[in-house]
Design a protein that fits this description.
Number of strands: 5
Helix content: 25-40%
Radius of gyration: 17 Å
Distance between the termini: 35 Å
Structural class: alpha+beta
Order of helices and strands: EHHHEEHEE
CATH superfamily: Molybdopterin cofactor biosynthesis C (MoaC) domain
CATH class: Alpha Beta
Number of domains: 1
Largest sheet: 5 strands, antiparallel
CATH architecture: 2-Layer Sandwich
């Protein structure tokens, strides 16, 4: 019925059986952006946010989210992640923070969802830490930039 791996021949959702897949090194890199007022960005860069170190908190939240992706996304496999990083790049125009996550594993399935989840939760944490100062922040552009390993090989976005 469907060529989607999470749908069986009766159209029902299922967890993909990866038991016959080879264990390979796999990586994924994802990005996102949280836009904010310049004054809000200054709270981060000067360290004056009332809740504390915004980026350190968001980094830990993103890494924890990558490790717990299988608890959040129903059909994701639990993975023994070997590396998860979350990095931030402040931007003045537009004002905000560019968030990037990289996740690695040696396993039978990829880590794209883990990288995307890490970026999403890091952005949400930034919002939470600063919402008292700027409720109008927006999160956008969350996407997969690159993935390597596995049967489908390498994917790299062509517009960056």
């Amino acid at each position: 019925m469907s060529k989607l791996s999470h749908i069986d021949d009766k159209g029902q959702a299922r967890m993909v059986d990866v038991s016959d897949k080879a264990v390979t090194d796999r990586t994924a890199i994802a990005e996102g952006f949280i836009a904010m007022l310049p004054e809000t960005l200054a709270l981060i860069t000067t360290g004056e946010a009332k809740k504390g170190d915004v980026l350190a908190t968001a980094r830990i939240a993103g890494i924890m989210a990558a490790k717990k992706t299988h608890e959040l996304i129903p059909l994701c496999h639990p993975l023994a992640i070997t590396k998860a990083t979350v990095t931030f790049e402040p931007s003045q125009k537009p004002a905000g923070i560019h968030v990037t996550a990289q996740v690695k594993v040696s396993g039978q399935t990829g880590v794209e969802m883990e990288a995307l989840t890490a970026v999403s939760v890091a952005c949400l944490t930034i919002y939470d830490m600063l919402k008292a100062a700027d409720k109008g922040m927006t999160i956008s552009g969350i996407r997969l930039l690159e993935k390597t390993g596995g049967r489908s090989g390498t994917y790299k976005t062509t517009d960056k």
